[in-house]
Amino acid sequence: MKRKRLAVIGFGGRGQIYGGYAKEFPDQFEFIAAVDNDILKLEKAKLDYGVKHLFSDYNDFLKAGLDLDIVAISTQDASHREHAVACLQHGYDLLLEKPIATSVEDCLEILKYSQQFNRKVIVCHVLRYSPFYDKVKEIIDSGILGEIMTINASENIGYYHYSHSYVRGPWRSSAKSSPIILAKCCHDLDIIRYLINKPCLSVNSLGDLTYFKKENAPEGSSEYCSDCALKDSCAFNAQRLYTKYRWMAGYFLKGNNSDADIFKDLKYSNYDRCVYKSDNDVADHQVTIMNFEGGITASLTMSAFSKEIYRDIKIHGTKAELVGIMEDNFLEIRPYQGEVINIPIDISEAVYGGHNGGDYFMMNELHKELNGIKSSRISYLDVSVESHLMAFAAEKSRLDGGSIQFIKM
Ligand SMILES: NC(=O)c1ccc[n+]([C@@H]2O[C@H](COP(=O)([O-])OP(=O)(O)OC[C@H]3O[C@@H](n4cnc5c(N)ncnc54)[C@H](O)[C@@H]3O)[C@@H](O)[C@H]2O)c1
Question: What is the dihedral of CA 75, 163, 166, 242, to 10 degrees?
Fold first, then answer.
C-alpha cells in the first residue's frame, strides 16, 4: 500500500494524535504540513514531528497548493465549517473531527460541498474502530442476539473530565462550541445508530445544568482554586486534578509539566476557576430516548457524575442480552437458552493513541481507505450527519422540556 500525504489544521490535542500517528507509522503517512494560529504548536510540529510546511493561517496553506492525500481538520468545533468548506472547495479529502459543525445548516453545507466536489469526508467517530464496539457489531451481525429490541447505553464522563472540559474548558458554552449532546454524545448517538443500522425517526430528551452553578458554591469558596481556603476538601480542586490527570494540563501548560509548572500556568486561568463560578451552560446530566424504524428503541444517559470515565451498553435482543463496559474490555452475552458467554476483547494490537484502540484503528483504516480498500466501519459524512441531526433534535427537545422531535433527513 502507498504512503499517504497528510496535513493537519489545528495542531492541538487531536491534531497531535494524527500527526503523531504519521511519525509512528511513517510507512503509512507522511506528515507534510501543519496549520495552527498558535506559534508554539507550529514550533512543536517542526521540532518534534519534522514538519516542513508550517502555516499560521489556513488561507496561506491553501494558496501553497500542496499535493496531499488527506487533510485532518482538528480545530475547535466552531471553526470546522469554515475550514472544511475551504478545503473541499480546494479539492482536498478530509478527516474531519467531530462534531462535523455546530449547526444543522453548517453540517448540511459541508455535506453539500463534499457531494458537489466529489470529495471524501471521514468523520472521526473513533469508537466505531475500537475492538470493543467492533466485537459488539460482529455479535449483532452473527444473529446470536436475535432481533434487537432496545439498547440502553450510558456515557459516564467522569467528574474530573467533565469539570475540565465542560465547566472550565473549551466545551463549556453551547453557543461558543456546541451543546454537550453534540460535542460529547455524537459518538454515542453514532454508535447506537450504527449498531441498530436503521434510521432514527424521533427523539425526546430531558436534562439540565443542575449542579455546577453559583448557588451550589460552598460558603467561603474563592473565584479560583489556587487561593481557595476550601481546596483541600473539594473534589474539584484544580491543583489536585491537574497534577493527578496530567493529560488535562496540556490544555494550558506553556512549558514543562512539573507540579510547579502546572501550578504556575494554572493560576488564575480558566482552568483554575471554581467549578461553581464559571461561565458554563452545558447540561451536566441528560437522558435521551430514541425511536428507530421497526419499533426499536434506545436510551442514552449522559452524566458528569461518575468516579471514572466509562461507557456501558446493554443490548436486549429476542434471543439474548448483551452487556458490556468499554473501558473494562468487558463483554458478555447472556442467551435465554444456555450459559453466559464471556467475550474476550484484545486491544494489544492498538499500540498507539487512546479511545481503547479507536484512534489507532481509525488511522489504520484511513490509510487502507485511501489505498482503495473499503471498510464498513468508516464513518462517511452522510451517515454521520444523520447521527448529528439526532443530537440537534435531542437538544431542541431538552430545551423544550422533553418534547418529541422528529428527525427529517
Ligand atoms: N474524536 C474524538 O474523540 C475527539 C476527542 C477530543 C476532541 N475532539 C474534537 O477535536 C477538535 C479539537 O479538539 P482538541 O482537544 O484537539 O482541541 P485543542 O484546543 O487542543 O486543539 C485545537 C487547535 O486548533 C488551533 N486553532 C484554533 N483556531 C485556529 C485557526 N483559526 N486556525 C488554525 N488553528 C487554530 C489551536 O491553536 C489548537 O492548537 C474539537 O472539535 C473537538 O471537539 C474529538
Answer: -10
